[in-house]
């Protein structure tokens, strides 16, 4: 990546306008998951755009969000040379197109630079823009080389390529897999955090052999350790991936005292808070720092954060706390255009899920999912079959899921 | 009526005829904690969290919240710490008679042995050899095992010295512990390492003899001591009073040694 001229002022992060109707947040919800969804009328079958409260054909209020075919026809194109909004002024000129979707409605989309002129076929993508709101993008019908180098793709994704990432705990198999996946995705530097240096870790040792990886001392339970590392590399980190986790299985009746629960909270909840306080200011400041700007914060949470799994009672509670804090972090970082990616895996293949029957998620599959989500600019990910099942049951009927998990 | 002994004590300290040696490591989050296998409960580490520092949280004052397990940093083990000492009278930090906190110390130099073998076990014959040179170990005194292990404190990996079979640090063998209790009636045993027992003491019979036997006999432990190389083999007086914690099993403390200059 070319170096920035340090004598020139750093661009201040600016985000596009973010006001949306409540109905339009349905698009945001779909974009956060990387799904292309629109409302369809349960009464007459008409697909709706823009999102609304009543069917444009029959006025029925029974509109449901459903995944849709992504194809469409570019009818006309406009080159926007000037905009009143600060965000668009900086990015002009940019291409916008009028597209008739194969599923019915017409819409205005941002055009990828490789799209042919009208009339032509294209694919639609629903993405999150810098403000965290849904944006429709028109892509060429077939992939072209360097697809991801398009400005609109760069604006809506957080690819690790040529970026510098911090993994907060690289001593576990998850941390190692995460580091290896980032290196494979072209990260320039991967700082690999390690606590308790006297406890040997084969995973950290294996990472030392990878060129872009640099081990750095970091104990998320120790504020002075977190601040010291932030003082050293905080102004360089583009992507922070919080892999630090403390997990001891067991029901709340299986232990006396709160020391284990406290240790879980110290890492899973307070650890995230310490990281947020130490690292987010520099991350926000560099959100518009050229092509390799700071871009994302990843929290490896747990599907157990959604609804308590009593066999992992205190761990679930600590992850629910971390999930809530991650929402606060997202609200804070959103104004600068930094994406917070929350990952909710089901049971991971590790020693603390040893008694959980399969299917379990391998750390390597988890790491691939995270890198894929960064490259697609997602906000919420439920990797693995168990997590997908849990979120579906949770959204359908949270009370039923609570009862089912109580077993 | 004042005591001439006390008067002399203070005047000797003021005049520099007695030196005060600090046998304590600074209490920091970085100092290595005791590590148990993960299936056991863990000691909280040392944490120092700022409440205010002449800022919005307190414009004119600086102070911290401090948290730690009872067995962190340079610390004291009370008999109640071990199951064998649970029924001893006055066995916790709040009930131990105060006079036991001030005692003379014998410093047994095991630096060569520990340098050669991290798993070195102090034996009765080593203790007898010490006594031949420096005189008999006094009743109600501390025996401190000098290994210069404290000089590793800046390197937590070397200080902890773990490998795939666990921790490798020196300590006493079973017979040496028995000898110090039964034949010499010591007040306790002190080390520079993370425990009064050797790193591999789980494999001795009984396991952790310095904990099992010393505490079972109402004796104490001191660990993570520093500066033992500044003490004479005999003649130093230790002032080692733990915090008065209700039913305390131990505590970090400041260990002072008075030494003739």
What is the element layout, followed by pairings?
The complex is a heterodimer of chains A (407) and B (261).
Chain A: H1 25-33, E1 37-41, E2 47-48, E3 63-67, E4 71-80, H2 86-91, E5 94-101, E6 106-111, E7 120-128, E8 134-140, H3 151-156, E9 164-167, H4 173-184, E10 189-194, H5 202-207, E11 213-217, H6 223-233, E12 239-242, H7 259-285, E13 296-300, H8 313-334, E14 339-343, H9 363-376, E15 380-381, H10 385-396, H11 398-406
Chain B: H1 4-15, E1 18-22, E2 47-55, E3 58-67, E4 75-77, E5 102-109, H2 111-116, E6 121-122, H3 124-134, E7 142-146, H4 156-160, E8 162-163, E9 166-167, E10 171-172, H5 174-183, E11 188-191, H6 209-216, E12 220-223, E13 236-239, E14 250-252, E15 256-260
Parallel strand pairs in B: 5-7, 6-10, 7-11, 11-12
Antiparallel strand pairs in B: 1-15, 2-3, 4-12, 4-14, 5-13, 8-9, 13-15
Helix pairs in contact in B: 5-6
| Low-confidence runs of chain A | none
Shape of chain A: globular
Provide a count of the helices of chain A.
Answer: 11
CATH architecture of the largest domain in chain A: 3-Layer(aba) Sandwich
What gap, in angstroms, lies between the N and C termini of chain A?
53 Å
CATH-level-2 architecture of chain B: 3-Layer(bba) Sandwich
Alpha-carbon Rg of chain B, integer: 19 Å
What portion of residues of chain B belong to β-strands? 25-35%
- Average of per-residue pLDDT values of chain A: 95
Q: Of all protein chain pairs, which has the greatest interface, and how many residues does each chain bring to it?
A: A-B, 16 and 20 residues
Mean pLDDT of chain B, to the nearest integer, reads 96
DSSP E strands of chain B, number: 15
* CATH structural class of chain B: Alpha Beta
Radius of gyration of CA atoms of chain A, rounded to a whole number? 22 Å
Secondary structure: number of strands of chain A: 15
* End-to-end gap of chain B: 28 Å
């Amino acid at each position: 990546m070319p170096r920035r001229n340090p004598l020139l002022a750093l661009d201040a992060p600016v985000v596009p306008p973010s006001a949306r109707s409540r109905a339009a947040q349905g698009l945001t919800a779909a974009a956060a998951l990387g799904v292309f969804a629109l409302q369809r009328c349960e009464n007459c079958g008409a697909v709706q755009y823009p999102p609304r409260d009543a069917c444009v054909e029959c006025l029925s209020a029974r509109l449901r969000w459903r995944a849709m075919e992504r194809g469409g026809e570019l009818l006309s194109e406009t080159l926007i040379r000037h905009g009143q909004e600060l965000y668009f002024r900086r990015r002009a000129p940019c291409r916008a197109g009028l597209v008739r979707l194969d599923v019915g409605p017409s819409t205005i989309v941002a055009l990828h630079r490789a799209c042919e002129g009208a009339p032509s076929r294209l694919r639609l993508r629903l993405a999150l823009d810098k403000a965290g709101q849904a944006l429709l993008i028109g892509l060429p019908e077939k992939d072209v080389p360097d697809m991801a180098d398009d400005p609109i793709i760069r604006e809506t994704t957080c690819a690790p390529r040529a970026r510098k990432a911090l993994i907060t705990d690289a001593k576990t198999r998850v941390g190692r897999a995460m580091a290896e996946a980032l290196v494979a995705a072209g990260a320039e530097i991967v700082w690999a955090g390690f606590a308790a240096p006297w406890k040997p870790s084969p995973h950290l040792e294996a990472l030392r052999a990878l060129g872009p990886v640099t081990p750095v001392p970091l104990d998320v339970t120790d504020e002075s350790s977190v601040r010291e590392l932030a003082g050293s590399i905080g102004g360089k980190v583009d992507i922070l991936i919080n892999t630090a986790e403390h997990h001891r299985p067991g029901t709340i009746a299986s232990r006396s005292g709160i020391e284990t629960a406290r240790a879980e909270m110290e890492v899973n909840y307070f650890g995230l808070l310490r990281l947020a306080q130490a690292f987010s200011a520099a991350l926000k400041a560099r959100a518009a720092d050229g092509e390799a700007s700071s871009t994302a914060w990843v929290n490896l949470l747990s599907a157990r954060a959604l609804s308590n799994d009593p066999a992992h009672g205190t761990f679930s509670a600590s992850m629910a706390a971390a999930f809530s804090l991650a929402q606060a972090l997202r609200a804070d970082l959103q104004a600068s255009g930094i994406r917070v990616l929350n990952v909710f895996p089901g049971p991971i293949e590790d020693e603390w899920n040893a008694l959980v029957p399969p299917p379990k998620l391998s750390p390597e599959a988890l790491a691939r999912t995270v890198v894929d989500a960064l490259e697609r600019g997602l906000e919420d990910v439920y990797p693995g079959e168990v997590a997908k099942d849990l979120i579906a049951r949770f959204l359908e009927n949270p009370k039923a899921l609570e009862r089912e998990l109580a077993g | 009526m004042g005591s001439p002994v006390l008067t002399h004590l203070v005047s000797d300290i003021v005049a520099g005829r007695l030196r005060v040696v600090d046998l304590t490591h600074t209490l920091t989050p970085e100092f290595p904690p005791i590590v148990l296998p993960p299936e056991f409960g863990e000691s909280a580490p040392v944490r120092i969290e700022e409440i205010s520092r002449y800022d919005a949280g307190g414009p004119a004052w600086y102070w911290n919240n401090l948290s730690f397990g009872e067995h962190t940093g340079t610390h004291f083990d009370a008999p109640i710490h071990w199951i064998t000492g649970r029924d001893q009278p006055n066995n916790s930090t709040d009930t131990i008679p105060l006079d036991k906190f001030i005692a003379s110390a014998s410093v047994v130099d095991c630096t060569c042995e520990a340098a050669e073998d991290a798993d070195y076990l102090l034996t009765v014959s080593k203790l007898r050899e010490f006594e031949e040179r420096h005189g008999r170990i006094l009743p109600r005194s501390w025996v401190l095992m000098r290994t210069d292990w404290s000089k590793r404190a800046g390197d937590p990996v070397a200080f902890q010295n773990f490998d795939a079979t666990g921790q490798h640090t020196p300590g006493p063998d079973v017979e040496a512990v028995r000898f110090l209790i039964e034949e010499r009636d010591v007040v306790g045993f002190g080390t520079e390492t993370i425990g009064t027992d050797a790193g591999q003491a789980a494999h001795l019979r009984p396991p952790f003899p310095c904990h099992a036997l010393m505490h079972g006999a109402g004796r104490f432990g001191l660990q993570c001591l520093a500066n033992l190389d500044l003490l004479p083999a005999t003649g130093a007086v230790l002032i080692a009073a733990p915090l008065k914690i209700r039913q305390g099993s131990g505590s970090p403390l400041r260990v002072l040694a008075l030494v003739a200059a």
